[in-house]
Amino acid sequence: MLRVFPLGGLGEIGMNCLALEQRGQVLLIDCGITFDDRGLGIDVVHPDFTALDAYRDRIAGVFITHGHEDHIGALPYLLKRYDVPVWGPRYALGLVRERLGEHEVLAHARLIETKARTRVTVGSFEVEPVRVTHSIADATALAIRTDAGLVVHTGDFKFDENPPDGEAFDEERLRELGDEGTALLFSDSTNVDSEGGSGSEQTVGDALETIVAQASSAVVVALFASNVHRLRMLGDIARRTGRRIVPLGRSILTHTRVAHDTGYLAWPSDLLFPQERVNELPRNTILGLATGTQAEGRAALARLARGEHPYLKLEPGDVVALSSRIIPGNEPEVYAVMGDLLRRGVVVRTRGTDRNIHVSGHAHRGEQRRMLELVRPKTFIPVHGTIHHLMRHGELARECGVPDVCVIENGDVVELARDADRPYLTRRERVPVGRVATFAGRPLAAQALRERAWLAESGCAFVVVSLTARGTLRAVKILTRGVVDEALDRNVIVRAERDAAAAVDEELARLAKLGGADDNAILEAARLGTRKSFYKALGFKPLTTVSVHRESP
């Protein structure tokens, strides 16, 4: 019997982490992060690993399908907690080394490179990577032999008939796995609402070459830095059009270095030009590569649009090509960046002006159907998507004749078993799951997050209560941040100071009758008096911190 419990990636986009358990051993497939858009200073969010504590000494390892952050980004946090080996394809491990080095856990990490069609024993599991195509080099599906039968996990995939790196989708091997008899298929649900196929990466290269060849000034292409296929094509385009590649942004530099070191990017040394010397180039020879396609404020594209990039200043007639799609929810920010570019006289090219400027790395509905028909699973669990995506993909599997489909979310437990050689799925109890927000590599407590949200929404007030040596009130002073303009609304502050003082006086009188002194009671009286005053004047209560100072006798 095989138990399945996802810790991330089911019921959401990103943070992929799936646990398979048999004979008391756990195999993890991927270990990714997601991002938080609440503006609370959160770096990344990773899965809560509490459910793995019961298997602390019995985690066989982690198997990585490919090198995107939503599949590898949480490994530093996992390896700080559990010392387990990590298997993955060469390019993914190159990126993993970068992340582990940043978190100072690389020295003790056990990273084992895998090759397509080569089986690896991981505890009681046997895992075989299978080549697929995706928007990153070295992407794999996994064929996992378990006690309950053959399990196939597609990873993130698409069917690209003409991949730029020549690493073709191994359709033949997937068909053979279907012939062998696949008990369970996990498959990528991201683009289940998009009909047809996702398109070939090569068409993007053709579209970008047309844009670059027609430009008479500097060109900047904004893209996801991890798309080595596109980086490779842009290098070829630069050579053919007489331009130099100028990496703009840390992420681009990281991926180009890792891709070069792992043999996936063979740019000659004279093709790259350092960003700090970009002004030495004639503008019609500049081909900049920028991160920040989703309008991230600190990324290169937004800084270029604001005129704040330290090395390159865009001028009228320059071209910016957004070789990307807008992730739903990011539209206002992306259009704001596009507006800033247009105000500078920059020519902006997008999927709206050039349809083939970007294709997705995730299979569309027609390709998902094709995968189901290749593998022909007896049971099916859709992965990588919101509940909407998972349910739609489940419906597609039923249409394709899969007899047993189970839609689950993070924390749900499902068992795969066999009855007279017929695999079937059964729901069981849930395991604890959650999201751990981090800042500067450390987890943020729930209370800290609540306070950050409170500060962002209502601001804060700092109250100082000064008492004489005899214990009478001398003064109350209030300083605010993010509450009011203290110069224009001084009357609000004065009234709050008066109300807080009245509350403190009343509390001091009560304490005097009791014959004691209680600073905690004074703190609470000042806090409540301040918050009530602000609520009466402004309609909200800021986060309020009080300190009491007593004069020396």
TrEMBL record:
UniProt KW Flavoprotein keyword: no
Top-rank taxon, per record: Bacteria
Metal-binding in keyword set: yes
InterPro entries associated with the record: Metallo-B-lactamas, RibonucZ/Hydroxyglut_hydro, RMMBL, RNase_J, RNase_J_2, RNase_J_b_CASP, RNase_J_C
Species annotation: Pendulispora rubella
Coiled coil: none
Official protein name in the record: Ribonuclease J
Keywords: Cytoplasm, Exonuclease, Hydrolase, Metal-binding, Nuclease, RNA-binding, Zinc
Pfam (any one): RNase_J_b_CASP
Ranges of residues in domain Metallo-beta-lactamase: 14-208
